[in-house]
Specification:
Layout: H1 10-33, H2 38-65, H3 73-99, H4 107-129, H5 136-167, H6 171-205
Helix pairs in contact: 1-2, 1-3, 1-4, 2-3, 3-6, 4-5, 4-6, 5-6
């Protein structure tokens, strides 16, 4: 059997997916800042989420059809699966805001969205860095920074939920906001999962 070269086009797919995730995070923050158009712009966020799903499934298909992949198959699967989940959860939080007819975003949500923007920028950086293991020091440093961002997100969530129980007298509103805060915090948790996967890839292949 003639051995064929490793298929390098996987990196194109990883990078394309990372771009969609970052675009989605930026769009969500813009939607908060322009809340009067939130519902109409939600359509664009849904489109981005669908485009990310397509990239994810293209990667799975390519993985099953490719003899030699540039990374271990389990790492490719874990990476794109977690990356796709970031945009899934961003969209899920936005949909709930629309369904629950949230009148206006609160400061804690702005803080969460700003952190997600920083985190997805870092995710994009480390994913682009995977093409060349000479980028290992930069990637590992950025992975630590993503962990720090996630810790900051945990603190925002704890503070926001604590204030919610102190100030909100309507139990329905409390339940709505608690779910939105927690759902959005999951996006930062998944960013950290992505960084852990990338860190493992670097340590394994560096």
């Amino acid at each position: 059997m003639r051995l064929i070269p490793r298929e390098e086009k996987f990196y194109d797919l990883f990078e394309e997916l990372a771009e969609k995730i970052d675009e989605g995070a930026k769009l969500f923050l813009e939607m908060l800042h322009n809340y009067d158009t939130f519902t109409t712009r939600l359509v664009k966020l849904k489109e981005l989420e669908h485009e990310a799903d397509v990239i994810t499934h293209r990667t799975y298909e390519k993985m099953h059809k490719t003899f030699l992949t540039p990374l271990d198959r389990e790492d490719i699967y874990a990476l794109v699966n977690k990356m796709d989940s970031i945009l899934d959860l961003t969209e899920a939080a936005a949909i709930r805001m629309s369904l629950y007819k949230i009148k206006a975003p609160v400061e804690a949500l702005f803080e969460q969205a700003k952190l997600l923007n920083v985190a997805t920028e870092k995710v994009k950086m480390i994913v682009h860095g995977l093409r060349d293991m000479k980028n290992a020091p930069m990637i590992l440093e950025a992975c630590v920074e993503i962990n720090t961002i996630e810790n900051a997100g945990d603190q925002i969530l704890r503070t926001a939920v604590g204030q919610l129980f102190e100030r909100e007298t309507d139990p329905i509103e409390l339940i709505k906001w608690k779910e939105i805060f927690e759902r959005f915090e999951e996006t930062l948790d998944i960013c950290e999962d992505v960084s852990n996967i990338v860190e493992g890839i670097v340590l394994k292949n560096g």
